[in-house]
Specification:
By secondary structure, this protein is α+β, with helices and mostly antiparallel strands. It has 4 helices and 4 strands, in the order αβαββααβ. α2 runs antiparallel to α4. The protein starts with 16 loop residues before the first helix and ends in a 9-residue tail after the last strand.
């Protein structure tokens, strides 16, 4: 006995109604899966294309500065808050480009250290930027306000750096 050919029977036939519905459901499922795959591929490509970090490049005179702030006891939170609320916006006003800010994970440095990197168009620009920043009335008012309960910073270590030829950051 041969099985009936469900493709030739009417969809309302009691014998093939379930088979027809199953074929229709499988076709729809295949179409939805194909569209979902295509949409996901498009989204992945778009995200990778437009949000992937590219190498930062600049002229060969650009310098980076690594700065390590050593806080007085109990003052690291105040330094972090001052950078977030006041210092970083003031840097922007004076041509000091923020690259990133970090706090260490491990003791004892995690209790009193803020590390950050800024960049300047040149070493000469860095000197000019820091001088203008440090002598600005806005910065002096910020320091007076944030250090009303005591000096925040014990000392600062500063190192100017040039990117290597294999660095993504140029």
């Amino acid at each position: 006995m041969t099985s009936p050919d469900f493709t030739t029977l009417a969809p309302t036939s009691p014998i093939c109604y379930d088979a027809y519905r199953m074929k229709l459901t499988n076709t729809r499922l295949l179409m939805v899966a194909t569209l979902a795959f295509a949409a996901g591929s498009l989204l992945t490509w778009t995200a990778a294309r437009f949000s992937a970090p590219a190498a930062v490049s600049a002229d060969s005179n650009r310098v980076y500065e690594l700065r390590v702030y050593h806080a007085n006891p109990g003052k690291l939170g105040d330094i972090v808050k001052r950078f977030k609320d006041d210092t970083r916006p003031e840097f922007d006003k004076h041509g000091i480009t923020s690259v990133g800010y970090w706090t260490p994970q491990d003791a004892p440095a995690k209790d009193n250290t803020l590390i950050y990197i800024v960049s300047h168009p040149s070493r000469e620009a860095a000197t000019k930027n820091w001088k203008e920043f440090g002598t600005s009335a806005e910065w002096k008012a910020i320091v007076a306000r944030t250090e009303a309960n005591g000096k925040l910073i014990d000392h600062i270590d500063s190192t100017f750096m040039d990117p290597t030829d294999y660095s993504k950051l140029k």
